[in-house]
Amino acid sequence: MKKIKSILVVLIVLTSFCMAAPVLASPTALGTPDVAVYDQQDWPVFIGYSAGTNQGFLCTDYAGGDEGEFTSPTYTGTVLTDLIDMVGTTPLIAIDINQVGKPGSDAQQYQINSLDAWIDYGAGFVDAYRYTGVLSQQETGNGDSDWVIPGLDLTGAQSLYFVLDFGNRNEGEVIGDNNDGKENFFLVKAGAPEVPIPAAVWLLGAGLMGLVGLRRRKNI
């Protein structure tokens, strides 16, 4: 009889645990990466090289030479509300890649084993988004994204965090070693303007066009 009672107690505990544990949905694949340039300083970084607090949002910093798995801060409550107000419910995940090497070579390529976005973990249901693949440097230097990845949906989210597992495909090199600039992972609002051509360039172009117009008038 005691044995039966012990078994029942164990079953009740296990049942309670299973009922309390969040249900994990199969990760939804994020969309196809697209080349796009966004200024990292204008948007919240969630995992990055010495990014600290950017636009008022904390991120997970990693030092040069690191590779492996990193987890972002967990965004909840008013912090998450403020984040969504800034980037929208369907933000793009922007990635700034900076690796020395011949363009298109393994030395410039990120091996993203997995980039996961976890939504509402511990709230009874977990929605997850995932990207895996290889991305290469497009822009040289710090501060501008090389790629954006669509497909994330934060509608109704109560909590959000990211888990990143990455490395460099070139043997002997590691991603994040700051050998051609810093690497950062951040969110941008879908449809927001990309990095504009500097105003000085526009002014120079307008000035040149004006000079051409004056010369034509004199020749008439």
Compact overview of the structure:
The chain is α+β, with helices and mostly antiparallel strands and 220 residues long. It has 3 helices and 13 strands; from the N terminus they run H-E-E-E-E-E-E-E-H-E-E-E-E-E-E-H.
Descriptive report:
The chain has 220 residues and is α+β, with helices and mostly antiparallel strands. The protein has one domain (23-196). It has helices spanning 2-20, 77-87, 199-219, and strands spanning 23-24, 28-29, 34-35, 45-49, 60-62, 68-71, 75-76, 92-96, 109-119, 125-136, 147-149, 159-168, 184-188. Strands 1, 2, 6, 7, 9, 10 and 12 form a 7-stranded mixed sheet that branches. Strand 9 and strand 10 form a beta hairpin. It is globular. It starts with a helix and ends with a helix.
Number of helices: 3
Estimate nothing, just give the exact number of structural domains: 1
pLDDT averaged over residues: 77
Shape: globular
Portion of residues within helices = 10-25%
Topology (SSEs and partners):
Layout (H helix, E strand, L loop, with lengths): L1 H19 L2 E2 L3 E2 L4 E2 L9 E5 L10 E3 L5 E4 L3 E2 H11 L4 E5 L12 E11 L5 E12 L10 E3 L9 E10 L15 E5 L10 H21 L1
Parallel strand pairs: 1-10, 2-10, 4-5
Antiparallel strand pairs: 3-11, 4-13, 6-12, 7-12, 8-11, 8-13, 9-10, 9-12
Features:
13 strands, 3 helices, six-stranded mixed beta sheet, globular, alpha+beta
